[in-house]
């Protein structure tokens, strides 16, 4: 369990608060808008109304005691910048900040953010990959060059094993897990026999994954 300071309770902040709560982390949620604070109270450990660009307010939070600080402010870039800088000034060990554009990310990192996330950009890319192909059930980009895809078992693979198919050698991809309904089987054995109603999570370089998915 981690202690998380979450600043900014727009759509992204609220969804993050809900997921952190689901994962049993302690969350202190902050927003300048009283209604947003009231709305998130059922899914966080505690919440406060406050201006995160106010130095006295940030100083009162004891930010150095949080494992993670998230600046989820999406509608005021100047406030996001000032908040990141204050958090680092007061000893926050790790700050993740939301960015809408590359130029925003550059300034947030210069102001002390340890990492930047692009929720809209990342979701748009994921949706584009997932819904533009009949053979992709899910997709996660790990880096600019490597990804994980969830895809159906090719018909030609049914009844055969990983060893028989020489998947790594022939396709340059790794089968990380197999899904059968709601059951997930991580790191399948080399002698696993592929079934028609399974899907698989495959990891590889984007060029190899694309070639595999679009194969005839």
UniProtKB/TrEMBL annotation:
PROSITE patterns, A to Z = RCK_C, RCK_N
Q: Name one GO molecular function term.
A: monoatomic cation transmembrane transporter activity
Looking at the record, the residues that make up the RCK C-terminal domain are 134-216
Ranges that cross the membrane = none
Q: Could you tell me which residue ranges the RCK N-terminal domain spans? A: 1-117
Top-level division of the source organism's lineage: Bacteria
Q: Name one Pfam family in it.
A: TrkA_C
Q: Which GO terms describe its biological process?
A: potassium ion transport
- In Swiss-Prot or TrEMBL terms, this protein is called Trk system potassium uptake protein TrkA
């Amino acid at each position: 369990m981690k202690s998380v300071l979450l600043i900014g309770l727009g759509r992204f902040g609220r969804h993050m608060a809900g997921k952190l709560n689901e994962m049993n982390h302690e969350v202190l949620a902050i927003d300048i808008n009283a209604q947003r604070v009231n709305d998130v109270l059922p899914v966080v450990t505690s919440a406060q109304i406050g201006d995160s660009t106010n130095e006295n307010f940030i100083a009162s939070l004891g930010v150095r005691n949080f494992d993670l600080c998230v600046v989820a402010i999406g509608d005021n870039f100047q406030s996001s910048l000032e908040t990141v800088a204050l958090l680092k000034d007061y000893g926050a060990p790790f700050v993740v900040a939301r960015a809408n554009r590359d130029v925003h990310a550059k300034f947030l990192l210069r102001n002390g953010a340890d990492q930047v996330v692009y929720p809209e950009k990342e979701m748009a890319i994921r949706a584009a990959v997932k819904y533009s192909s009949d053979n992709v059930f899910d997709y996660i980009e790990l880096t600019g060059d490597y990804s994980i895809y969830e895809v159906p078992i090719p018909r030609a693979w049914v009844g055969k094993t990983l060893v028989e198919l020489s998947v790594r050698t022939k396709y340059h991809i790794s089968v990380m897990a197999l899904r059968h309904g709601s059951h997930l089987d991580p790191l399948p054995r080399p002698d696993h026999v592929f079934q028609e109603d399974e899907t698989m999570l495959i990891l590889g370089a984007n060029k190899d994954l694309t070639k595999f998915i679009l194969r005839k």
